[in-house]
Design goal:
This protein has a single domain (49-144, 184-350), classed as 3-Layer(aba) Sandwich (Rossmann fold), CATH 3.40.50. It is 38% helix and 7% strand. It is built from eleven helices and six strands. The chain starts with a helix and ends in an 8-residue tail after the last strand.
């Protein structure tokens, strides 16, 4: 066999192998995004929810959605379904910037023109930031194509190591060779109670024993301008954009998430004053739109002052998250605050 024929045989084998792998990925379609893939009972596959959430947002069986960061990943659609007579899907994404939450909402609304309820969990550690990195740096080539309605433009991005790993995990599940790891309604118990360690949680809350307080959370407000209108919150207008997208008849539930009291800063300090002003601006945005119910959990309360309710400064334990969701239902249905738990915000105070 000549060198040329050997080279051709090797090239042909490589082409055939690549074509076979590509065909297998098209069939398995781990992101449920390709027009030519068969309709299979897939599970959301990616640890990075940016890859799995768009397909969930398109599912016709849901009429309501939860949007937010990892803090709202703790919310179980099954609990909210019964409370509100809806079919929720959890579209929360770890560390999702507001523009990413808006992008997911846009996908959901294109496929659910008149959703029943949209619940937006406002993680103030994200929404009330003073500055942020360039959001363009967070864009990923494949997710961008997953968020449009072109079911063909994903074909060019399916040969990568990441996709291959996800396709294999999906194949293992579809073939019955492995368990379901990810919830089909977007909820996965990613902070299981059996892994909770109170000592570790305290380290996340307060730092190692003997460590000085977080200088940012303990910082005085001396450098803040007296004119609060000049204070900058880089993400806040995305909230208006999200509410603007939704039809008037859709119930919008806006929840300021119950972070641990440590995350609120010391009373009268820089962090605490900025949080209060940020919430005021968010509530003023809510007041512009119809059918909005706003609940504020981000203050010193029977939830936020107990260390045993938290894994760290922002993530509730599973038990506390269940209680939190029940309180949301009680607050929205009763249209009232619950002393030492949450405030049902009277948006009339924030209207123009």
């Amino acid at each position: 066999m000549t060198w040329r024929s050997t080279w051709r045989a090797g090239l042909g084998a490589a082409v055939l192998l690549t074509a076979a792998v590509y065909a297998a990925i098209l069939v398995v379609d781990p992101y449920d995004a390709v027009a030519v893939s068969p309709a299979l009972d897939r599970q959301p596959i990616a640890r990075d929810q940016r890859y799995s959430a768009p397909a969930l947002a398109r599912k016709a069986r849901y009429d309501s959605a939860i949007l937010g960061t990892s803090t709202t990943r703790l919310m179980q659609p099954a609990l909210l379904d019964g409370a509100f007579g809806a079919a929720f899907v959890n579209l929360s994404v770890d560390n999702a910037l507001p523009f990413e939450q808006d992008r997911l909402l846009a996908v959901f609304l294109r496929h659910h023109v008149r959703p029943k309820i949209v619940l937006i969990g406002l993680d103030h550690t994200m929404w009330c930031r003073e500055h942020d990195q360039d959001p363009q740096k967070l864009r990923r080539k494949l997710p961008d194509t997953l968020y449009d309605d072109d079911r063909w433009n994903d074909l060019a991005h399916l040969l990568s190591r990441r996709v291959l790993v996800h396709a294999w995990e999906e194949f293992v599940y579809l073939a019955g060779l492995g368990p379901q790891k990810w919830g089909k309604d977007g909820y996965t118990a990613w902070l299981p109670p059996e892994r909770y360690d109170p000592a570790r949680a305290r380290r996340y809350l307060y730092g190692p024993p003997g460590a000085p307080p977080d200088p940012e959370l303990d910082r005085a407000a001396d450098d803040l301008p007296a004119d609060r209108a000049s204070w900058r919150f880089v993400h806040i207008e995305w909230h208006a954009r999200m509410l603007e997208r939704m039809p008037p008849e859709t119930m919008k539930i806006v929840v300021v998430m119950p972070t641990h009291r440590i995350a609120h800063g010391r009373p009268g300090g820089r962090v605490a004053l900025r949080l209060a002003e940020c919430k005021r601006r968010l509530f003023a945005i809510d007041a512009r739109y119809p059918n909005v119910a706003t609940l504020d959990f981000a203050f010193d309360s029977d939830i936020t002052r107990h260390d045993g309710n938290y894994w760290d400064q922002v993530h509730l334990t599973a038990e506390a998250a269940v209680r939190f969701q029940r309180l949301i239902a009680e607050g929205v249905r009763g249209r009232r605050s619950e002393r030492d738990l949450f405030e049902y915000v009277d948006l009339r105070r924030y209207g123009n």
